[in-house]
């Protein structure tokens, strides 16, 4: 067989291929078109769903990781940390974060950011989940304020977020006394709020505590509600026994505040957000009324002020209107005299004015008017046991006319001597007068009179006279007996009459006659009186205060 | 060697893919669709529309390559901590934790090979269309390497699918495939198709026409 011939034959026998017309456009171009569309769509969504980029400055970036740490609001992821850097002077850590689209309207100057890590606060342990899932940045969108993209992050999570319903109040306290951020606020021993912040007042004289009361309890706070420090234990021992009082275990540890609205004559107006109240030291002190206005007066007492101390009450007709602030001793070089001014503080608000409220200038005029009517200050014994004195203001109608002295640092109210002083002076005068009485002379005279009378009554002449009369009567009786027969009837009647007369005389003058008796009785009583007066005079000389106190048991 | 080597297309002969019958097809008859006279299968002298198809597929692969690297490939959720990784960040993570071989494997398979394929095919297409006669032997070798190695890029995808299937430990650890994995798989498949639709014979055709024109 011939190979080339075979090949040629083979090649000659190759049939023709059948040709159909073909479309020019290849379907494969769909692939890149689809790819382009998909790529374009991805790019579009990536760009259009871009949210705002913000920077937050924190003190430290502990727990934060670039590209990983999320920003969460109510546990919903709304952003992610892109990068962490420093600010210009390396004082703060600047975190750049991207948020989801639509977050712009929550980014205002009131928006707060903080790093939420596991931490132990005063009121509990928080954020244990972040130990596993990593810290995240919490956000509290603020209401109002200008939109802004740069923020200062907080160091600790805020106690209260803006969407929590309730009210803020401010309390003035002298000291912070174991309260801290997170300390609870109780109402009827239910926790209704907490301390949010505290800072020293600008003049350094008080502490302002910012508390937040959750709704719906904030409507129980009225303008006259009293807040007091309920922390720790209250132990009181009195006649009924030992009482231990505390709000809760938590307040024993970290302190707390409680409030209640005391029932009194004022009506309850609900308090508004941001109202200021005073924080009282304990529950008892909320019932003490406190007053803002204070007026100061000076009193000068002529006598001793022994027993009067600063803090002693100043009362008007028994009701406290103020207190003694200061007592001093002054020596005036001009007069070479010692004066003891007493500075008192009056709280005019203690006197509820009915009718038109006077202005401050009018108050002074009113006081002048009262002084002209007899308003005086006096020292009075408050407590016999301790000898404490207090100052009593009262209207003395018999007071000599005086007026307010306006010279000097404080206006001076006129004073009246104390009742003790009047008693002492009166007593001295009585003793003086008693001294002047010639008591001995009187006694002597009375004694003489009694003696004279006694002598007269017991004199032998009178006895003799009576005796003679008896004898005469005897003789006359004999005569009468003798004469009875003779001139018996006439003599008898005459004798009868004589006898009657003599009996009457004896009745009058006899030793047991009424005249004698009365004379003797009068003389006896005179003697007794004289003796009594002598003993009284004696006694008074020794115990002049018996005039006041009586003999009593003060021997 | 002769200046014009004998090729089937030069001799106007076409072999059927199915029944291997030789049939005559002139060089002018490139437009239209030729059918084998015996079995009716479409006859192709060269891979049909090779350049156009390869270009289309390469462009798609380029376009998909960007999201494949930007979007995360794996999303690992472990104890509420969510971590998404792209291909590059995975490589870097393995490097940082000291597992060099794994990092190397991932880098070669997922980054080097696809890029190499794309660049190679692009170069070949450009060289053909510019009718360059630079080292045809090496170019062909280049093409063969690209075609063979290209499929190994799917290793990364297989790893991701196995991880997703195996690591379903609830809150402790859960792995999900991210969108980057889809795009990366698309890239690999498309480059595979692109390599398949590229006809290396065109290299020589271009050179021949170059020689002929000279």
From TrEMBL, chain B:
Keyword Repressor: no
Signal peptide start-end: none
Entries under PANTHER family matching the protein: INTERMEMBRANE TRANSPORT PROTEIN PQIA, INTERMEMBRANE TRANSPORT PROTEIN PQIB-RELATED
Location(s), subcellular: Cell inner membrane
Spans through the membrane: 55-79, 99-128, 149-175, 181-198
Protein name: Paraquat-inducible protein A
Keywords noted in UniProt: Cell inner membrane, Cell membrane, Membrane, Transmembrane, Transmembrane helix
GO CC aspect terms: plasma membrane
InterPro entries associated with the record: PqiA-like, PqiA-PqiB_transport
């Amino acid at each position: 067989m011939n190979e080339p011939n075979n090949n040629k034959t083979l090649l000659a026998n190759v049939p023709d291929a059948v040709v159909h017309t073909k479309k020019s456009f290849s379907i494969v171009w769909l692939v890149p078109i689809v790819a382009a569309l998909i790529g374009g769509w991805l790019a579009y969504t990536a760009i259009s769903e871009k949210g705002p980029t913000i920077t937050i400055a924190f003190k430290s970036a502990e727990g934060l990781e670039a590209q990983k740490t999320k920003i969460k609001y109510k546990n919903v992821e709304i952003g992610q940390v892109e990068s962490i850097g420093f600010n210009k002077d390396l004082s703060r850590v600047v975190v750049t974060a991207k948020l989801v689209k639509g977050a712009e309207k929550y980014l205002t100057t009131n928006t707060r950011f903080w790093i939420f890590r596991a931490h132990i606060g005063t009121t509990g342990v928080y954020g244990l989940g972040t130990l596993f899932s990593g810290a995240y940045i919490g956000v509290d969108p603020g209401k109002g304020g200008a939109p802004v993209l740069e923020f200062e992050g907080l160091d600790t999570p805020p106690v209260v977020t803006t969407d929590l319903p309730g009210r803020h109040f401010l309390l003035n306290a002298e000291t912070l006394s174991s309260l801290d951020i997170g300390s609870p606020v109780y109402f009827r021993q239910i926790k209704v709020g907490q301390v949010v912040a505290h800072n020293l007042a600008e003049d350094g004289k008080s502490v302002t505590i910012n508390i937040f009361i959750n709704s719906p309890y904030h409507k129980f706070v009225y303008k006259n509600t009293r807040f007091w420090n309920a922390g720790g234990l209250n132990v009181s021992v009195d006649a009924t026994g030992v009482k231990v009082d505390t709000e809760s275990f938590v307040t024993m540890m970290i302190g707390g505040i409680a409030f209640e609205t005391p029932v009194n004559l004022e009506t309850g107006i609900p308090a508004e957000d941001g109202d200021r109240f005073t924080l009282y030291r304990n529950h008892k002190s909320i019932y003490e009324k406190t007053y803002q206005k204070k007026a100061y007066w000076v009193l000068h007492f002529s006598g001793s002020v022994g027993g009067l101390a600063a803090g002693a009450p100043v009362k008007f007709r028994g009701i406290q209107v103020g207190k003694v602030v200061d007592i001093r001793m002054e020596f005036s070089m001009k007069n070479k005299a010692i004066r003891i001014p007493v500075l008192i503080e009056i709280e005019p608000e203690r006197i509820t004015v009915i009718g038109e409220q006077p202005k401050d200038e009018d108050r002074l005029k009113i006081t002048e008017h009262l002084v002209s009517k007899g308003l005086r200050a006096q020292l009075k014994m408050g407590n016999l046991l301790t000898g404490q004195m207090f100052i009593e203001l009262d209207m003395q109608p018999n007071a000599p006319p005086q007026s307010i002295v306006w010279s000097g640092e404080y206006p001076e109210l006129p004073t009246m001597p104390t009742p003790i002083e009047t008693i002492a002076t009166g007593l001295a005068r009585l003793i003086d007068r008693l001294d002047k009485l010639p008591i001995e002379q009187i006694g002597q005279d009375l004694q003489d009179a009694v003696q004279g009378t006694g002598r007269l009554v017991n004199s032998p002449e009178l006895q003799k006279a009576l005796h003679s009369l008896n004898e005469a009567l005897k003789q006359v009786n004999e005569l009468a007996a003798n004469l009875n027969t003779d001139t018996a009837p006439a003599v008898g009647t005459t004798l009868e009459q004589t006898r009657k007369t003599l009996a009457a005389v004896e009745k009058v003058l006899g030793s047991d006659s009424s005249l004698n008796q009365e004379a003797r009785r009068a003389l006896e009583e005179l003697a007794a009186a004289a003796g009594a007066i002598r003993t009284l005079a004696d006694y008074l000389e020794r115990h002049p205060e018996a005039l006041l106190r009586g003999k009593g048991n003060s021997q | 060697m002769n200046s014009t080597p004998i090729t089937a297309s030069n001799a106007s002969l076409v072999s059927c893919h199915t029944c291997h019958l030789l049939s005559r097809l002139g060089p002018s008859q490139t437009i239209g669709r030729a059918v084998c006279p015996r079995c009716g299968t479409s006859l192709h002298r060269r891979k049909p529309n090779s350049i156009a198809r390869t270009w289309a597929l390469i462009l798609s692969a380029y376009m998909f390559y960007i999201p494949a690297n930007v979007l995360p490939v794996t999303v690992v959720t472990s104890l509420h901590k969510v971590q998404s990784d792209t291909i590059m960040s995975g490589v870097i993570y393995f490097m940082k934790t000291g597992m060099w071989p794994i990092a190397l494997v991932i880098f070669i398979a997922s980054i080097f090979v696809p890029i190499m394929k794309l660049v190679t095919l692009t170069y070949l297409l450009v060289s053909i269309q510019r009718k360059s006669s630079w080292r045809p032997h090496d170019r062909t070798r280049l093409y063969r390497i690209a075609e063979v190695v290209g499929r190994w890029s799917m290793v990364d995808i297989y790893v991701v699918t196995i991880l997703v299937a195996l690591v379903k430990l609830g809150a402790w650890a859960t792995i999900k495939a991210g969108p980057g994995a889809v795009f990366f798989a698309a890239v690999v498949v498309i480059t595979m198709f692109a390599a398949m639709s590229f006809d290396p014979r065109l290299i020589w055709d271009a050179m021949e026409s170059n020689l002929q024109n000279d």
